[in-house]
UniProtKB/TrEMBL annotation:
<dbReference type="InterPro" id="IPR004182">
    <property type="entry name" value="GRAM"/>
</dbReference>
<protein>
    <recommendedName>
        <fullName>GRAM domain-containing protein</fullName>
    </recommendedName>
</protein>
<dbReference type="InterPro" id="IPR037847">
    <property type="entry name" value="GRAMDC4"/>
</dbReference>
<dbReference type="InterPro" id="IPR037845">
    <property type="entry name" value="GRAMDC4_PH-GRAM"/>
</dbReference>
<dbReference type="GO" id="GO:0034164">
    <property type="term" value="P:negative regulation of toll-like receptor 9 signaling pathway"/>
</dbReference>
<dbReference type="GO" id="GO:0006915">
    <property type="term" value="P:apoptotic process"/>
</dbReference>
<dbReference type="InterPro" id="IPR011993">
    <property type="entry name" value="PH-like_dom_sf"/>
</dbReference>
<dbReference type="Pfam" id="PF02893">
    <property type="entry name" value="GRAM"/>
</dbReference>
<feature type="domain" description="GRAM">
    <location>
        <begin position="3"/>
        <end position="89"/>
    </location>
</feature>
């Protein structure tokens, strides 16, 4: 699966957003803010076994991305995935309850 690979930064999860801040100076193009309700798919992703954290990442798809965004080289990928996924479920179930 072709991806847009993102690394070298900090991934934040807020109540409504997934935010990535690039640690490279002058690379504001790589900063990302994704509404959790816009996520159409989220999954654990194995990039390469030679990267930190055994090359583990998280792939996120949205309607506005042509290919999944992969946040890679994550040392604590499983914990990050659980946090993102739990908040995603919480916010999407809350928004679907308010629509009924």
């Amino acid at each position: 699966m072709p991806t847009d690979y993102i690394r070298n930064g900090v991934l934040y999860v807020t109540e409504n957003y997934l935010c990535f801040e690039s640690s490279k100076s002058g690379s504001s193009k790589r900063n990302k803010v994704i509404k959790l309700t816009d996520i159409t798919d989220i999954q654990k992703y194995k990039v390469l076994s030679v990267l930190p954290g055994s090359g583990m990442g998280i792939a996120v798809s949205t309607p506005s991305t042509q290919k999944p965004l992969v946040f890679g080289a994550m040392v604590h990928r499983d914990e990050a995935f659980e946090t993102i996924f739990n908040q995603y479920v919480k916010i999407t179930s809350a928004s679907s309850s308010s629509e009924s």
